[in-house]
Amino acid sequence: MPAMKRKLNEHDVPEATEQPPLPDSTFASFGLEPRLLRGIRDQKWAAPQPIQSKAIPLALEGKDILGRSGTGTGKTAAYLLPILHNILRRNQRETSALILTPTKELASQITKVAKSLAAHCGDSIRVQNIAGKESAVVQRAQLAELPDIVVATPARANANMNNGALSLKNLAHLVVDEADLVMGYGFQEDLENIARNIPQGVQVFLMSATLNTELETLSGLLCRDPVILKLDDSENDSQRVKQYVIKCGEEEKFLLIYALFLLKLIKGKTIVFVADVERSYRVKLFLEQFSIKSCVLNSELPLTSRLHIVEEFNKNIYDILIASDENEILGAREKDDSKPPKKKAKGGKQDTGVSRGIDFLNVSNVLNFDLPTSYKSYFHRIGRTARAGKSGTAISFVIPKEKYRKHKPTTIPQCENDEEVLRKIEKHQKDGQKLEDYGFDMKKLEPFRYRFADALRAVTRIAVREARVKELRSELLKSQKLSRYFEENPETAEQLRHDQVLHHPARIQSHLKHVPDYLLPGGRKPEDIGFVGLEKERTDKRRIVKRKGRVVRARNGKVDPLKTFNKKGRGKK
């Protein structure tokens, strides 16, 4: 692939490169239902992505498919379009498709795409998401209407299957999206039970960003003779990412992120990855000192809030999203692949973080504020940019061994092995990929140090804790499930609102918002305006009466005691 230059349009969104479609590769050439083609037109998809061009014809033939393709490359539509087409052709009221995902966020995203593609199908296609926190009674009522497509986590699907609410006797299609994560999240028992209860001849789709032994195990459990589609689009996307490394001290991370955003050294939408929830709020509060807006996405927030934040980020309401990736499953597995991960709780409630599953739109930059513990996590993170033919930038802050624990207020244990992780990342770079030194001259940031230190001191542990509590209070007030409780207990809601606006977690310092030109690297020096006297120039037009070289009184007749030698205020006559 020829080298590609990074290019942003007037909205700071990376431009897509011209990629001619494959011969005869159009959605209409697949013979899809006209109503689906109208839904595709609404999505403004000009031509099929590579995974779609290969998977859709095979799926329409009834083949089982095991596909490897990166997130955001069109996997969802690759299995949804053939399923929707077959449901419309059968025209029977029954649950004929089950889509299994590892997380509620991904389930919600798939449901939204399915409804958008079927927007012109009326009541012919009904999609139901049961991955949420609805009660068993509510889900039983939802499934009693026999939706054509059911989207769920394996645990929810298995539970509803066991209590008789979900019937699989007429199932025609089974999809496992992000299949490697599904197997890694303690869902194996649920999947085995589902596999025992599905009828023979069910078409199976296994979609994943990677092909590994877990996926092969799942394939043997569910598939007959799957067609394996191993696309190189994820590698190609990675090659379009310009990767940079900045080696710095622990406190200098905050100085660098301040400089990058305030001086606009990086443009466009940015995802900042940090180590944990506490760290995400610390970075957010630090940036607020300089009036830099950002939003936080972490596992501590409720599902609806997380989905709302992603939606606002995709709508360009926020240009900076700070994401904590503390529960990244691949990072944990990297340490010891011989031990299977433990199931955290019944139902597999383990969070993927945000480096997999959820689709973010038009991300120009990925900033690894804290380097992950695994090279696999690193590549999944930088895969958030340079999607669908676009270019992107990935910048990683790395703490050298000799600088670790030199600034205790900003030290975290995860940074201890940064250099070792960096070596693994360099070792696993594919052809056409490389890590470059950003070449940042830290001396040019010396004028900013006093401002940065002042802002960092304002972000205390108490401020971070209050920010987390304030965010949760806000989410409680917006919760639909608690709305009735607040109606019956208005004093509780009033207390929450009062506490929410009582004070800001960190002390905002307005003088930090503006940067004088003389502080900028290579900026203007203060202009030389010549000699300025200490005495203020007289601006009044009063005529002074002088007698024998001595001031006595002004024209208005009043005596100025300071201009006489008489303490009584009378000049000599």
From TrEMBL:
Keyword list, A-Z: ATP-binding, Helicase, Hydrolase, Nucleotide-binding, Nucleus, Ribosome biogenesis, RNA-binding
Pfam families: DEAD, Helicase_C
Span of the annotated motif Q motif: 25-53
Domain Helicase ATP-binding: 56-229
Annotated spans, Disordered: 1-28, 332-352
Catalytic activity: ATP + H2O = ADP + phosphate + H(+)
Residue span(s) of domain DEAD-box RNA helicase Q: 25-53
Family per similarity comment: Belongs to the DEAD box helicase family. DDX56/DBP9 subfamily.
Role noted for this protein: ATP-binding RNA helicase involved in the biogenesis of 60S ribosomal subunits and is required for the normal formation of 25S and 5.8S rRNAs.
Protein known as: RNA helicase
Lineage per the UniProt record: Eukaryota, Fungi, Dikarya, Ascomycota, Pezizomycotina
